[in-house]
Task: structure prediction
Amino acid sequence: MYAVFRTGGKQYRASEGDKVRVEKLEAAVGDNVEFDQILLVGEGADIKVGSPLIKGGKVAAKVTAQGRTDKISIIKFRRRKHYKRQGGHRQSFTEVEITSIKVA
Result:
């Protein structure tokens, strides 16, 4: 069975045992977290779609890592104008392992 859940303004599809990188959560490594904004739950032809959410649905997960992605370089320049700006960005993430999917 898989579920589509929403956290951090994004949607993720996951099954039990999957490791998913979501937007940073305020949780320590080893903590259990629950996602209650479930949009869809299904397996094969048996699919339940919420309107917009499934009532009583929860996805339980365990935090396995906190980290940051690789650096992305940001460069702005105008040729022949002595104008150049450089910067970088590293996005923080939380890696979770899905332990269970519950539907009421």
